[in-house]
Write a structure and sequence with these properties.
NAD; elongated; Trk system potassium uptake protein TrkA; eleven-stranded mixed sheet; K_uptake_TrkA; alpha/beta
Length: 225
């Protein structure tokens, strides 16, 4: 897979290093000469250019990329790069960094963004995920389809504890994708039973999040105990 990263700062270089270790081709683009540090990521391709300019993106052969990551520290730049990558070069997957959470509403398919990653929001979500039981935590937003990756730890008193996955009437536009049980990561099957303490990961439409949380957090009735 070929990946172009706009922004060769600490974030861009870290992403590049991870992708290279996984066997992908990476091109780092930055307009600041001081950011071009080939020795820090020697296996990557480097381009000194303004990623907001069509001529620069032509030189980068963006049409050959499977993924473009807009990882600069400027939200305006990230939005322009995302829009150009999607509309001018037809890049299948565009991921954009959100620096200011107030701008998160802009990072959607109208600007060519498939996945928006807000570091402040993600850090907050991870803190909530670590300490909350029974509360739905939004981990990641997908622009297409207005869907989110959400997590909930099933509480002891949940009415669904001990229930098979196939027996649960899940809300529309939600999909249980993973069950984390202790050190195990389980791909849910219809015969798997939910257990108290399970960390459940869903892809769910935002409009269904409250309904999903109510379902998972509903307490057993006294008669059912």
């Amino acid at each position: 897979m070929r990946v172009a990263i706009a922004g060769a700062g600490a974030v861009g270089r870290s992403i590049a290093g991870e992708l290279l270790e996984n066997g992908h081709e990476v091109l780092l683009i930055d307009k600041a000469p001081t950011a071009i540090s080939v020795e820090r990521v020697p296996m990557a391709e480097w381009l000194l250019a303004d990623a907001c300019e069509i001529t620069s993106l032509d030189e980068a052969a963006l049409q050959r990329c499977n993924v473009v990551i807009a990882a600069t520290g400027d939200d305006k730049v990230n939005l322009v790069v995302s829009l150009l990558a999607k509309t001018e070069y037809g890049v299948p997957r565009v991921v954009a960094r959100v620096n200011n959470p107030k701008n998160e509403w802009l990072f959607n398919e109208s600007w060519g963004v498939d996945v928006a990653v807000s570091t402040p929001r993600l850090m907050s979500a991870l803190v909530e995920e670590a300490v909350s039981v029974g509360d739905l935590v939004r981990l990641l937003r997908f622009s297409h389809g207005d869907a989110n990756l959400v997590e909930l730890t099933l509480p002891e008193e949940s009415a669904l504890a001990g229930t098979r996955v196939s027996e649960v009437e899940w809300p529309e536009d939600t999909s249980l994708v993973t069950i984390i049980r202790g050190t195990r990561v389980l791909t849910p099957s219809p015969d798997d039973s939910l257990e108290a303490g399970d960390e459940l990961l869903f892809v769910a439409a935002q409009a269904r999040e409250e309904q999903l949380e109510d379902l998972l957090s509903a307490r057993r009735t006294d008669a059912a105990r």
